[in-house]
Amino acid sequence: GAACQKSAFKTTTSDVPEMPPCDFKPEEFKGMSKERMLEIRQRNCFPMTMKVTYYKNPVFIHQGHMQWLWDVDGKRYLDLFAGVATVSVGHSHPRVTAAAERQLKRLWHTTNIYVHPTLHEYCEKLASHLPDPLKVVYLTNSGSEANDLAVMLARLHTGNFDVITFRGSYHGGSPQSTGLVSNQIYKYPVATSLGCTNTMCPDVFRGVWGGRHCRDSPVQTIRECSCSQGQCMAKDQYVSQLRETFATSVPSRIAAFFAEPIQGVGGAVQYPKNYLKEAFELVRERGGLCIADEVQTGFGRTGSHMWGFQGHGVIPDIVTMAKGIANGFPMGAIVTTPEIAASFNKAVHFNTFGGNPVAGAIASSVLDTVREDGLQQNSLDVGTHLMTELAKLRDKYEIVGDVRGKGLMIGVEMVKDKTSRDPLAPELMNEIFEDLKNMGVLIGKGGIYGQTFRIKPPMCVTMDDADFFVAVFNKALHNCMEKI
Question: Could you give the CA distance from residue 218 to residue 320 in angstroms, rounded to a whole number?
Fold first, then answer.
């Protein structure tokens, strides 16, 4: 177990790895004191704000540039969480900032009751990045709203009610979207889950079935299996579980099946290859629509494709997106087929801010920047390198159970030991988390038990940044092992 490894690390240097250089000079902070900010946060902000505040000593962010953040004291951080996988092309990216400034000088706001060019230019551009027949766009303010509308649209189109999601899934925080969520910390004693059924998540590391060839990732699990190449017993078993859900938990006709191509909040969980392809077939046999939640995986983050669903060889009926769509500016979207979109005429939905001119200009510039800066390819190259190096730490440390992901959608699952695969204790997770922050790296946490470190940086990160993080993570793991 982990305790047996302690003596192996006593000679490791205590030096903190050197951060890669950055030519950008942030402005000097001259605002209110940290004490005053915390006082206001505790007194005037909703209590949930304090509940979700990261770190024992919070980070007081002042300014950002590309993959870097600076706090009010001038300390620089490598941002490997991107505001929860939201800053897609880089903090205050000059090209995107310029697009926002141009639009702000021309027109801040108007709604869909008028016809303005920015909305239509963006809808056409976004649709051009999706395969046929996904060509009809509706713009929203957030991923939660996009998922709400996807549920409504699926129910209107099919005439059915029930929706299936995975255990461990996260699809938003609105009253309806929390019904889609399958994680205890987002469940409250209020009626949000009507018509929503959770099926077993095909997690090939923590789940009942798994193996060494299951997933579309540069790094496979440590689990053994007897599957020959091209065959996957785990996939077959998880598909059988979905059949079981159909046989026991929902009517013979359903409205929709929701899936993140890679689970985000759930901890970068990946499914066996070809699972979604078979799942989509089963759903469509029962009258349901297949919905891909690309809020975290979209816009090139997975590296091999623009959209996460393309890595599974499927075409959904509805795609929802947000976060990286506008590099952090509040925006979301659903994209579907003309036939399904026509079903929305059975209802009326008006969104005051969806399709806002500034949001459209920013989102359009994001698409241009992903292409012009080669960020999808960079996600593939840097992400593959980073996962390969992190896998070496998995082999070195007993408490590192799994490294997984695609591109810059990465998870590192921490365990008590590799045999049990039980989650690492929260206090040890927090030790590592704090240590990384103190050495200048910001990452996230996720998973049902909070046992997975989430690495989802702006897609402009470099190989040097990746190597710096690996060195810092190695140091933090070593420090943790010394305390066990």
Answer: 26
Q: Is the separation of the CB atoms in 476 and 439 below 8 Å?
A: yes
Q: Could you tell me which of 304, 308, 338, 305 has the C-alpha nearest to residue 320?
A: 308
**Is residue 93 within 8 Å of 369, Cβ to Cβ?**
yes
Q: How far does the chain reach from its first CA to its final CA, in angstroms? A: 11
Share in percent of the chain as helix, strand, coil (round to 5):
40, 15, 45
Burial code (b: 16+ CB inside 10 Å, e: under 16) for 79-102 equals: bbbbbbbbbbbbbbbeebeebbee
- DSSP, res 7: G
172 neighbors 143 (Cβ within 8 angstroms)? yes
Outline where 86-135 has alpha helix (H): 94-106, 117-128
Distance of alpha carbon 407 from alpha carbon 173, whole angstroms: 26
Q: Which helix (H) or strand (E) holds 35?
A: helix 34-43
Tokens 């189109």 -> residue = 157
What is the domain class of 95-373 according to CATH? alpha beta
| Predicted pLDDT at 194 | 84
C-alpha to C-alpha distances, 206 to 259, 322, 428, 435, nearest whole angstrom: 18, 28, 19, 26
* Residue-wise pLDDT tens digits, 276-313: 999 999 999 999 999 999 999 999 999 999 999 999 99
pLDDT digits (tens, 9 = 90+) for 309-353: 999 999 999 999 999 999 999 999 999 999 999 999 888 888 899
CATH class of the domain defined by 34-82+375-482? alpha beta
**Rounded distance between C-alpha atoms, residue 424 and residue 255, angstroms:** 38
Six-digit token string for 35 = 């004490």
Q: Which helix (H) or strand (E) holds 145?
A: helix 143-158
Angle, CA of 409, 412 and 414, to the nearest 5°: 155
Match 């951060």 to its residue by tokens. 19
Residue 201: what residue type? Answer: C
Q: Indicate the helix (H) or strand (E) that contains 289.
A: strand 289-293
The DSSP 8-state label assigned to residue 288 in this structure reads: P
From residue 181, give the alpha-carbon distance in Å to each of 166, 258, 415, 471.
8, 10, 24, 35
Instruction: Report whether pLDDT(1) > 60.
Output: no
CA 216-220-226 angle, to 5 degrees, is: 100
Pairwise CA distance, residues 314 & 153, whole Å: 20
149 burial via Cβ count (<10 Å: 0-12, 13-18, 19+): buried
DSSP 305: S
Two structure tokens written together for 384: 């593959």
Question: Would you kindly state where each structural domain of the chain is located, as residue ranges?
Answer: 34-82+375-482, 95-373
